[in-house]
Amino acid sequence: ECKKARAYSSSANLGSGFDILSMAHTAFFDTIEICVENKNSGDIVIESNSNIPLEPTKNSATYPIVRIMEERGIKASLRVKVIKGIPEGLGLGSSGASAAAAVMAFNNLFKLNLSKEEVVRYAMYGEIASSGSPHPDNVAASVFGGVVSVVSVNPVKVVEIPLNYSFNILLFVPLNVHIEEKTKKAREMVPKTVKLSEYINNSRYMSSLLIGFVKGERDLIRLGLNDEIVEKARLPLFPYYPKIKQIAIKYDAIGSCVSGAGPSILVLTDKMTDENKIAEEGTKTCNEFNVECKVIKAKI
Ligand code: HSE
To answer: Residue ranges of the GHMP kinase C-terminal domain (predicted)?
Structure first.
């Protein structure tokens, strides 16, 4: 017997919400199929269209499954097909989506009746497999959809943010950039301590963003899509970002921020925005930094 599940790409952080906020989008998706094999070996065999680790404890789709099976005493031989649609290492929640889809497929296959938060808790292990740290933001967005806030990690608690402003998404995805273990490195760039003034400013941004979404206020969303701590520390990973942000504002986007740990950039747009100009000038800006950006239009 086999079960399949799909999970979408996401942009974590949304400016000041490092490891807290995340937005799922239709830009890309991963599909996972899990089949129970008629064998007693207890092996997990991985097949993929992509060059991912084939060791179950090192693979972000299968490590969560290893953990569920251990915790719940489930014994089975599995064949796991990982069909990657989300490009990896570009800040689009690729490993989180694989992990989320794998846990959803496993949940259906073994009729475990896991709640969405339990799915997030297990899928979070996929992030340990890929980056060494169990940040649940991308996973939560892929499981719940929309914009989510992870308000607690242990126990996992996820709040779905009501969105009362309708917007579209433009993503600048630098396709010719590959940094080995990017998320791990990007996390090492984040400062261990921050100044009180930076903390206050970032808290202002996050409250502005959340209230902007809930009340449907464009100006608050724009102000909220800022950050003075994490994006700033990671700027060497995406040096074109400040200029793309300026271009986005010049052509009246709602706002923009770095997608997850980068190097992709997220721009939120609406009917006031000249999307074509942003795409054109933003692509040129990437080129000035010797980066080939693909512009993807998506919805939440
Ligand atoms: N919140 C995480 C980070 C997302 O910025 O490191 C990584 O995918």
So the answer is: 221-285
